[in-house]
Write a structure and sequence with these properties.
A: mainly alpha, 79% helix, B: mainly alpha, 434 Repressor (Amino-terminal Domain), 5 helices, 52% helix, globular, membrane (chain A), transmembrane helix (chain A), transmembrane (chain A)
Chain lengths: 145, 73
């Protein structure tokens, strides 16, 4: 498996898992009250931090296992770069959508909870769907033109 | 939906004609991953012109002996 494909798997799984944990913690903390009044800052920061830490750890594991496979395991070529660019392009769209949604919510004077959560969701969708696009390009027909 | 390519290739046949060269050997010689060689062979990826020339150079043949274009009939 090319190193770019391994990285896409790591990014997708770490982001999806971290967000799932965040939603579960948030719903557990809600305790019957309004969702917008739930304490979200600490779980958000912990899950973002956890996701980053898990990604770094997985990168180290990939690096160690790739060293055993030899020099060719580290190789990236024009196809990897084009697939990476395609994934970035897909992911960027969700960052823009998230930014616009947050802007709209701020103009409507929505609570900080909703603004923060729409941005977090956009980041997660960007990471998950950008990675899914990369993985799909690796497995299926990918023509850069 | 990604458009399928009209470019076909004879890499597999050329590899066998070149002493049963493996996909890994070809990948090493043109500086790409084995997965990229597999994708090119199966028509799932169209290489750049430069990579196409590198492949042809490995087999010591012209570009049109490696890649063929199937126009609309």
């Amino acid at each position: 498996m090319p190193i770019g494909q391994k990285r896409a798997w790591v990014m997708m799984v770490a982001s999806a898992l971290a967000y799932t944990v965040y939603v579960v913690v948030l719903l557990t903390r809600r305790d019957g009250g309004p969702l917008a009044e739930t304490a979200y800052v600490a779980p958000l920061l912990w899950t973002v931090g956890g996701s980053v830490a898990a990604t770094v750890l997985a990168e180290i594991v990939i690096a160690v296992s790739s060293r055993r496979e030899g020099k060719s395991a580290w190789r990236t070529d024009e196809r990897d770069r084009e697939i990476d660019r395609f994934g970035e392009h897909v992911g960027q769209a969700f960052v823009v959508i998230g930014g616009l949604a947050a802007l709209g919510l701020a103009m409507l004077e929505a609570g900080y909870f909703w603004i923060a959560n729409v941005i977090y969701l956009a980041f997660v969708l960007s990471a998950v769907l950008g990675s899914a696009a990369r993985l799909s390009a690796y497995r299926q027909n990918f023509q850069p033109w | 939906m990604v458009k399928p390519t009209r470019v076909t290739n004879s890499i597999r046949a050329l590899r066998f004609a070149a002493g049963e060269m493996t996909q890994a050997d070809l990948a090493d010689r043109i500086g790409v991953t084995r997965q990229t060689v597999i994708a090119i062979e199966q028509g799932r990826y169209s290489p750049s012109l430069e990579m196409a020339f590198r492949i042809a150079h490995v087999f010591g043949v012209g570009l049109d002996a490696v890649f063929q274009y199937q126009p609309d009939s």
